[in-house]
Design goal:
With about 425 residues, the chain is α+β, with helices and mostly antiparallel strands. The protein has two domains: about 150 residues; about 160 residues, Mannose-Binding Protein A, subunit A (Mannose-Binding Protein A, Chain A), CATH 3.10.100. The protein is built from seven helices and ten strands. The strands form two sheets. Strands 2, 3, 4, 5, 6, 7, 8 and 9 form an eight-stranded mixed sheet that branches. A two-stranded antiparallel sheet has the order 1-10. It is rod-shaped, with a radius of gyration of 75 Å.
Length: about 425
């Protein structure tokens, strides 16, 4: 019985020493802590027996056991093993000395019970470890699967990284080229900006010169128009003077041919007009059937060695009104030689003689009974107003009316009648 106790104590001490060595190499497992607690409990019981109590082993309180466990954990592992062996030997010697065989048997049974509990604890721990192993195995399988996916992603990302690196290299090269182009363009922009400033300055100067030349051009255009008008008038006067000179030359030739002898006298003259012309006092009048504008009408009369009619008195106005009534037909409207084309409101005859205020024969309008002239304007028919005068006979009124010079109307031409003397014998 004592040998069994000694064997169990020695075996327990060896196991405790192996456990201490294992704990020094790795981190203590929670399940092993439980087993160690059971072993320490048994050791405490053994220590209590070694104190020499005749009544046998006394169970330690929970606080005393924890205090004793704490003291044992603080001692080095080698000293603890020697202490356990020595303690076991002292316990056996004390039991033999007192002859307390019964207590030794109980102590042996205690150690058997502790071993069984330890085995059961180990079996339970194995079951828990097996379950934990299966769980860790499943986690490992999942991690391996995840590792495969991550490896594929890693390979794909490496490939994309290579492509992006190439693109980065290309873009870097392109950036350098564009940067150089940008510097060149910026330099060119600076030069162009300078040239733009110079050109803008020159443009301002040219614009001022253009405005000045434009003003001079307008002045010259006005002068040219005035000179052109004066030239036309002088040409007409020159032609009229040439015609009068020719008429006077013919009269002088006739007088020289028929110069009366001494003792005779001239008491009467005979007036003659061209064919289709009407004689009134000492003038000839032609009432046309075709239509022309005012300026063209004046030119046509001039080509017939005359001009648009100049009305100088009421007798002449009445005579022409009757002729318009007789020869006018449906449209009893004829151009006469009066206009205010040069200055609005200042009416002048074709021979440049101003209109005599005492010899005016303006008519009235049938539409509103208003007095002429009115210089009526219209955007389509008469945008520049009415600057030329016509002789018109209407149902209610007759007289002079201003009209647009471009409108085509019939005309009344006037020229001087040719006069011949009638010789009477004395």
């Amino acid at each position: 019985m004592n040998a069994d106790v000694v064997y169990s104590s020695v075996n327990f001490s060896k196991k405790k020493q192996q456990q201490s060595e294992s704990e020094s190499q790795k981190t203590t497992d929670p399940l092993e802590d439980v087993i160690n607690t059971d072993i320490q409990t048994a050791k405490a019981l053994t220590l209590q027996q070694a104190d020499g109590s005749n009544e046998g082993l006394t169970t330690l309180s929970l606080d005393e056991r924890r205090s004793q466990e704490h003291n044992e954990e603080c001692n080095p592992c080698s000293s603890e093993s020697d202490f356990e062996i020595e303690l076991t030997m002292k316990t056996l010697a004390g039991l033999q000395k007192k002859g307390n065989v019964t207590k030794a048997k109980e102590n042996r049974l205690f150690f058997k019970t502790d071993t069984e509990l330890k085995q059961e604890s180990i079996n339970g721990n194995n079951t828990v470890l097996a379950e934990e192993y299966e769980r860790v195995k499943k986690m490992l399988t999942a991690l391996e699967t995840r590792y495969g996916e991550l490896h594929k992603n890693h390979v794909s990302l490496q490939s994309q990284y290579g492509a992006l690196n190439k693109n980065h290299t290309n873009l870097t090269a392109q950036y350098e080229v564009l940067n150089k182009s940008h510097d060149s363009l910026e330099s060119q922009y600076g030069e162009l900006n300078k040239n733009h400033g110079k050109l803008k300055f020159h443009y301002g100067q040219l614009n001022k010169n253009h405005d000045y030349l434009q003003f001079q051009y307008e002045e010259l255009t006005k002068d040219h128009a005035s000179l052109q008008m004066k030239y036309g008038e002088l040409s007409k006067n020159h032609a009229r003077l040439q015609y009068e000179y020719a008429v006077l030359s013919k009269r002088a030739t006739a007088l020289e041919k028929y110069h009366p002898p001494k003792g005779t006298s001239w008491s009467q003259t005979c007036s003659v007009c061209p064919q289709n012309w009407l004689l009134f006092i000492s003038k000839c009048y032609f009432l046309s059937t075709d239509k022309l504008g005012w300026s063209d009408s004046q030119d046509h009369c001039f080509s017939e060695r005359g001009h648009l009619v100049i009305i100088e008195n009421k007798e002449e106005q009445d005579f022409l009104t009757v002729m318009v009534e007789i020869k006018g037909g449906k449209e009893k409207s004829y151009w006469i030689g009066l206009s205010d084309r040069v200055t609005e409101g200042d009416f002048v005859w074709v021979n440049d003689r101003p209109l005599d205020p005492r010899k005016r024969f303006w008519g009235k309008r049938e539409s509103d009974n208003g007095q002429e002239p009115d210089n009526w304007t219209d955007k389509v028919q008469s945008p520049t107003g009415e600057d030329c005068v016509e002789l018109k006979k209407s149902k209610s009124y007759n007289g002079w009316y201003d009209a647009n010079c471009r409108i085509q109307k019939k005309r009344i031409c006037e020229t001087a009648a040719l006069t011949y003397p009638v010789r009477f014998k004395s």
